[in-house]
Specification:
It contains nine helices and no strands. The chain has 233 residues and is mainly α. This is RNA-directed DNA polymerase from mobile element jockey-like. It comes from Macrosiphum euphorbiae (potato aphid).
């Protein structure tokens, strides 16, 4: 990403336009009417070579002016026309419907919300207060012409939909490392009787006795065992 001192992202958008134009030429070549690739393949090329570059850092440059962000929409629309073989006069909504895409504006909002919910589920994350502490966003309430940071944009969305970040389920890490096994209680009482000279009814009665406690969780194993013994774990 290219940062400028005013954070208007003009240089970054110019870089994206130049960089993605090379990938657009690849799609033009692959979209040949006589021997070109299928629409699905062209769409995958677009998502891999172009959309991935556009969306990199989208939650950061989402504060740019609308006129700059619309330039990115133009890049996507031109590529969707190449993918579908549509005319320049084709409505944008039709192109989005045919390809199953959504506008880059909505995709940026989706990425912002995914990031916000992820941070909200981890209150100890260093960026939590930067996004959800209203004191950090107070400076942007009165400045209508000032670019809004992600915290202010998320706050507007949460307020509009009555979402309280404190009510989002917290993701807690287990205290015990998952690679450390639990201390299981293994019952080997079945091994005390020889299967060859013990009546089956004795094993049935022993099994009923061991399974009377409904609070216990029984796990049966087919692990290697002596030929003359039965194991209940």
């Amino acid at each position: 990403m290219i940062f400028d001192k005013n954070l208007n992202w003009n240089k970054h958008f110019s870089f994206l336009k130049t960089n993605t134009s090379k990938s657009t030429n690849i799609i033009k070549l692959l979209a040949n009417n006589k021997w070109g690739a299928q629409n699905k393949i062209l769409h995958n090329v677009y998502k891999t070579l172009i959309r991935a570059k556009i969306e990199y850092g989208a939650i950061i440059y989402g504060s740019a002016k609308t006129t700059n962000l619309e330039k990115l929409e133009t890049i996507q629309n031109n590529n969707l026309r190449l993918i579908t073989g549509a005319f320049k006069s084709s409505p944008i909504k039709s192109l989005l419907c045919i390809t199953g895409e959504i506008s880059l504006e909505k995709r940026r909002k989706l990425l912002e919300l995914q990031y916000a919910f992820k941070i909200a589920s981890h209150p100890n994350n260093p960026t939590y207060n930067s996004i959800f502490d209203k004191r950090n966003n107070n400076a942007y309430y009165l400045e209508t012409n000032t670019s809004k940071p992600i915290g202010r944009r998320i706050e507007n969305f949460f307020n509009a939909h009555s979402i309280n970040p404190k009510h989002i389920i917290k993701s807690e890490f287990p205290i015990k490392p998952p690679w450390r096994p639990n201390n299981f209680e293994i019952d080997l009482s079945f091994a005390e009787s020889n299967k060859g000279n013990t009546a089956p009814q004795i094993f049935r009665n022993l099994f009923k006795e061991k399974t009377q406690n409904k609070d216990d969780v029984l796990v049966f194993t087919d692990a290697p065992k002596p030929k003359t013994a039965l194991h209940l774990q």
